[in-house]
Amino acid sequence: MKRIGMLTSGGDCQALNAAMRGVVKCLSCSGEKVEIYGFLDGYRGLIYGNYRMLSGEDFSGILTKGGTILGTSRTPFKLIRQPDENGIDKVEAMKKNYNKLKLDCIVILGGNGTHKTANLLREEGLNVVTLPKTIDNDLWGTDMTFGFQSAVDIATDAIDCIHTTAASHGRVFIVEVMGHKVGWLTLNAGMAGGADIILIPEIPYDIDKVIEAIEARDKRGCRFTILAVAEGAISKEDAKLSKKEYKEKLKKSPYPSVSYEVAAKIQEKTGREVRVTVPGHTQRGGSPCPYDRVFASRLGSEAGKLILKGEYGFMVGYRNREIVKVPLEEVAGKLKMVSPDATIVKEAKMLGISFGD
Ligand code: F6P
Predict the structure, then answer these.
(1) Is 136 a catalytic residue?
(2) Within this chain, do residues 213 and 171 fall inside the same structural domain, yes or no?
């Protein structure tokens, strides 16, 4: 008999439910008797002992359902060692609840911050298996995270919809894409949606080069230009600032986000009409795409296999088209960024896409 804890932490994404279902299906199909304890709202549930015992029925019909049946929240890693407002030691509280329930292991689904805490719990002696979720695809140790492909579909749809109206009006349009500090989502949705200019954090842009690209299109007789701009895109000047200076600059900025700043500069320097569209959290919403359903189910079932073998301390990831187990200490605290020299970037440039560099 195995007693398994489970939680989803950080921003949600598509296919969290599919992944949890995969774990539970694998365990129950093995014939092993299992008890599943679902902690509510991420690490918060583990800290404060908020959990629900889950049955097979809870996992039925959720393959296609977005969000997470357990709820989620952000518990910043940098605050994890600090007592809460009532003086509760969060790490000790998590260990206590884990031990109180006599868990064999805890399955943690999350992105970067979540993995730092998962690794800390491993160091503190808990048996942990993790699954890589995030629309940002920025988790180290895996080529792909679930949620990413679904978000690419949604961001691409947004760019597709902009295409027709951009063509009618002959305007410059900016679609701001999520992705936090990395450009995977913007790069992929931008290419899929046929964006003319793609701005990502890893390749700081020069606004004059962006304008050059727009004007070159004008000269070729193109009526419109579409930019896919990552929410974390940064100009060459700003990239020279220290983290602190850049934060200060953002605080004082009159623009709600980088896209509005880029728009204002284009408008000011060219007199062209520019519009900004921000699909925002829609990119994390709705049903997982078929790819993510399959991918998350595969990762989930492999996590189930590790649990059955009693192999803990791993993230189940995907490398070179193989499902692999990656030691948590290798994953925690690292960001997987787009390399400016990546083949896909070179290929995009060969297609005539400008990165504003
Ligand atoms: O990490 C996923 C993500 O959607 C990022 O792309 C985005 O920057 C962030 O979460 C938004 O966070 P929140 O939901 O807390 O506003």
Answers:
(1) yes
(2) yes
